[in-house]
Structures are given as structure tokens and as C-alpha cells.
Design brief:
It catalyses: 6-hydroxymethyl-7,8-dihydropterin + ATP = (7,8-dihydropterin-6-yl)methyl diphosphate + AMP + H(+). This protein has about 170 residues and is α+β, with helices and mostly antiparallel strands. The protein has helices at about 15-25, 65-80, 120-130, 145-150, 155, 165-170; strands at about 1-10, 30-35, 40-45, 55-65, 95-100, 105, 110-115, 135, 140-145, 160-165. It contains 6 helices and 10 strands, in the order E-H-E-E-E-H-E-E-E-H-E-E-H-H-E-H. The radius of gyration is 15 Å and the shape is globular. The mean pLDDT is about 95. Bound molecules: adenosine-5'-triphosphate (ATP) and 2-amino-6-hydroxymethyl-7,8-dihydro-3H-pteridin-4-one.
């Protein structure tokens, strides 16, 4: 069985529904089991800042899918939840990014693992740290805790717990 971490983000209402629906659709695949979910965090927009705050979370999955099969399923869920592509880094009903897949380090036209921007993003690293603080990002030679320590204080302040993980799993 393979192990993966997926980051979810949404900033179009109903944001909580979009996250919960995405979790339900992931679970509906027999090739995917959700092992752990982080809390949901409310986060200030990064990159393109003239947009609403996001809800972000990270899930740990076990899967028999290959990385690209997992990406296909993530993109299908984005489509099912009505994601429309617009401004780069702009508003979205749901975004699913594959952060890590085993200790794979690979780059194809469709998929880069580890996710190339994950180490700069407090909205990814803080939820990931909650569920997997000691996991090593081999490509960077650092674990998640070390990456969180390198984040600017101002970025950390922009990420606040919005719903605790126990309530997400209900
Ligand atoms: N690890 C990855 N997880 C998800 N998509 C990836 C990954 N690596 C490369 N991609 C590619 O990135 C493309 C653009 O993805 P998307 O539109 O979700 O980007 P974005 O959310 O705007 O930006 P970001 O990737 O920085 O979160 C996808 O079509 C996919 O093929
Ligand atoms: N806070 C926050 N900012 C973002 C996010 C996101 O999920 N959360 N996603 C982006 C594009 O992937 C761009 N900016």
C-alpha cells in the first residue's frame, strides 16, 4: 500500500461543504482510504491577495493508485465540485494538490512530487505539521517541523484553526 498526503483548499462558499464533499468523494473510491485528517484552518490568500480567505486542510491517505491515478481522481473531484479555471492562484471551489507520495521524487509534465511550492506555504505546512510533524521531505533533506520553523512569523499568523480535526471526522 502507498501513502500520500493531499492538501485541500477552497475560498468560495459554502467552503465547509466543499471540503466535506471532497472528503466524501475521495472516500467513495475503493482504492483510497483516509487515514488521518488535519483540522480545518482559515487562511489569508497567498499569491493573488485580492480574494476571500481560504479554508485549508491536509489529509493522509493510503492508496493502491499510482501517483497519476491519484491525480486523475483529485482532478475529477475538482470538476465534480464545479471548479472553473480562472486567474492563476485565484478563487476556487476546491483545489486538491498531491503533496507527497511515499518518498517519491518525480517530475513529469502533469505531476511534480513533492509539490513544488509546499515548502513555502504556511497554509499547507501548518496542517501537515499537525498530522505528520516528523515526516521527511527527502528532496529538501528536511522534515515538516523544520520547514515550519523556517516560515516567516507573518505567514504563520495568517493561518488560524477554524474547526478541530475531531469535528471534521464526525
Ligand atoms: N503535486 C501536484 N498536485 C496537483 N497538481 C499538480 C502537481 N504537480 C503538478 N500539477 C499540475 O498542476 C496543474 C495546475 O494545477 P492547479 O490549477 O490546481 O494549480 P493552482 O492550484 O492554481 O496552483 P498550485 O499548484 O500552486 O496550487 C495541474 O493541472 C496538474 O497537472
Ligand atoms: N491561503 C491560501 N492561499 C492560496 C491557496 C490556498 O489554498 N490557500 N491556493 C492557491 C493556489 O493553489 C493560491 N493561494
Amino acid at each position: 500500500m502507498n501513502t500520500g498526503y493531499i492538501a485541500l483548499g477552497t475560498n468560495i462558499e459554502p467552503r465547509e461543504n466543499h471540503l466535506k464533499e471532497a472528503l466524501r468523494l475521495l472516500k467513495a473510491h475503493s482504492e483510497i482510504t483516509i487515514e488521518k485528517v488535519s483540522s480545518i484552518y482559515e487562511t489569508a490568500p497567498v499569491g493573488y491577495t485580492d480574494q476571500a480567505d481560504f479554508l485549508n486542510m491536509v489529509v493522509h491517505v493510503h492508496t493502491s493508485d499510482s501517483p497519476v491515478e491519484l491525480l486523475d481522481k483529485c482532478q475529477e473531484i475538482e470538476q465534480q465540485l464545479g471548479r472553473k479555471r480562472g486567474v492563476r492562484f485565484g478563487p476556487r471551489t476546491i483545489d486538491l494538490d498531491i503533496l507527497l507520495y511515499n518518498h517519491e521524487n518525480s517530475k513529469t509534465e502533469r505531476l511534480i512530487i513533492p509539490h513544488p511550492r509546499m515548502h513555502q506555504r504556511a497554509f499547507v505546512l501548518i496542517p501537515l505539521h499537525e498530522i505528520a510533524p516528523t515526516i521527511l521531505i527527502q528532496a529538501l533533506g528536511k522534515n515538516v517541523k523544520e520547514l515550519v520553523r523556517e516560515l516567516p512569523e507573518t505567514d504563520i499568523k495568517d493561518v488560524r484553526i477554524w474547526m478541530k480535526s475531531e469535528s471534521v471526522e464526525e
